[in-house]
Design goal:
By secondary structure, this protein is α/β, with parallel strands linked by helices. It has 13 helices and 18 strands.
Length: 470
């Protein structure tokens, strides 16, 4: 067993506005006498098989209620070494260093060892997704709370395992939740808030399969910088049998945002409320040189050989799109992965909500300097002066919570001027999600609507995965 140390840093977290959700009512965590009080050091983290950098981002900051000693159980190898190196970097950074002490067990029986010893009370799971559903189920069966990165499931066979895990968790009084960082992004928050003002937005239109009422697109890149350093990805990240295809991975965030923004506080039942209309997948092609740059490996591992064409190029089914209908509203989500972003750019997000009075769109292209920007455009036939008046009044009210928020004219309508202080960045959102989860621990439950909609969310992505099969 190895030990590594780390320090303490406190971060201001913006509260996400509103709630969203997930399926099966009987799976909702029951209210119970809280065993957590928010006291210092009462949360004792266990990190299970960390293979994705998101596992480390949960620990980029420290939290008063979390014991600085963190137990790590993982197979020996580059995944756990990379995780420990990231934690060490947080511990030794010049500004606001953390003070984590990593207590590490590496061995083939890492899972059995964790379940037998249970040295903590909250398991963080972010890594290879092939076993994630089973990790979640076994953890809650052992009486451990779980905070898991998305996606919790990557194929249809995983979904019943996840539902069973929620049943076991409800019976045992432990909590499961996934890390939905995008709810804490300021333009997503403001897009939701504006859509809730009838005088401004009107009602969400029904749309059509070809022209959905609400659409979200996410563009990501394999080569990127994380915490100031080039990201080295594990080779298995490019194996969709282990990482999951794009249609079940990043789309998890997009489906979640649609439920959270368009159906706030509503428990959505997949069988009753949702119909997946179409789904498609397509590959991103990577040369060996590109693969080597982002993994550090000089050749493709054997498990990827079947995905390499005669031209020596690896095909990764990282791209996908889903068109579906929720309570009569047509929605579309899509994700694309490229090798690297254009100069000065990064991962980007596009979102539009079409109301009867106004359309709310988040754009992040070159025209916006690759910064998420929220536009408000009057709908066709709408009373533009009335929409502008409602927008100004709404932003004036919102500025009481977000000082400095303003409205400016744009070519086809208006744009929100958002102070930089609210753009805390993707990495900071992990602390915000984690703080929210700690509040759930103190309350003794995840809100039932969240549980219901989480399961519905994964029902949508796994149904789309089935439909996209060749």
């Amino acid at each position: 067993m190895r030990t590594r140390n780390l320090t303490m840093f406190s971060m201001l977290c913006l509260a996400a506005c509103g709630t969203g959700g997930g399926p099966e009512k009987e799976a909702a965590s029951p209210a119970r006498g809280a065993t957590f009080t928010g006291a210092a050091g009462e949360v004792k983290l266990i990190t299970l098989d960390p293979g994705h950098f998101h596992a480390a981002l949960v620990q980029k900051t420290m939290y008063p209620q979390v014991d600085p000693k963190v137990h790590v159980f993982a197979p020996a190898g580059p995944d756990v070494e990379g995780h420990l190196a990231r934690i060490e970097a947080y511990n030794t950074r010049a500004e606001d260093p953390t003070s984590w002490e990593e207590l590490v067990y590496t061995g083939d029986d890492f899972l059995e060892k964790m379940l037998a010893e249970k040295p903590g009370n909250v398991v963080v799971i972010s890594g290879n997704n092939a076993r994630k559903a089973e990790y979640i189920k076994q953890s809650v069966a052992a009486g451990l709370n779980v905070l898991a990165d998305k996606p919790m499931v990557i194929q249809s066979a995983d979904y019943p395992v996840l539902k069973e895990a929620y049943r076991i968790a409800a019976e045992g009084g432990v909590l499961i939740d996934d890390i939905m960082t995008e709810r804490f992004e300021i333009t997503s928050i403001l897009q939701k808030r504006l859509s809730e003002v009838p005088e401004l937005f009107g009602e969400l239109t029904a749309g059509t399969p070809d022209e959905p009422a609400i659409s979200k697109q996410s563009v990501h890149h394999f080569s990127k910088i994380v915490s100031g350093r080039p990201l080295i990805r594990p080779a298995w990240f490019f194996d969709v049998r282990q990482q999951g295809e794009g249609i079940v991975d990043v789309t998890t965030h997009l489906v979640d945002l649609i439920q959270w923004q368009a159906f706030p506080g509503q428990a959505l039942d997949f069988d009753r409320d949702v119909e997946v209309l179409s789904a498609r997948r397509w590959p991103t092609r990577l040369t060996l040189d590109q693969f080597a740059h982002v993994t550090g490996l000089e050749e493709f591992p054997d498990y990827l050989k079947d995905d390499v064409g005669l031209d020596g190029v690896l095909e990764v089914y990282a791209n996908g799109g889903i068109v579906y209908r929720v309570k009569g509203i047509h929605a579309k989500v899509s994700v694309e992965w490229h090798y690297e972003a254009p100069e000065g750019a990064g991962d980007t997000h596009y979102s539009i909500m079409k109301g009867s009075k106004a359309h709310l769109s988040v754009r992040q292209g070159e025209a916006e300097g690759y910064t998420p920007t929220l536009y408000v455009d009057p709908a066709e036939g709408a009373d533009a002066p009335a929409v502008e008046k409602a927008l100004q009044e709404t932003v004036s009210t919102l500025s009481e919570h977000y000082p400095g928020l303003e409205v400016a004219s744009a070519p086809s309508g208006w744009v929100l001027i958002i102070p930089d202080e609210y753009r805390v960045g993707h990495e900071a959102h992990f602390a915000q999600v984690t703080e929210q989860y700690f509040r759930y621990l103190v309350e003794g439950r995840v809100p039932p609507v969240e549980v219901q909609n989480l399961l519905t969310k994964y029902a949508i992505t796994t149904r789309a995965w089935e439909m996209s099969r060749p």
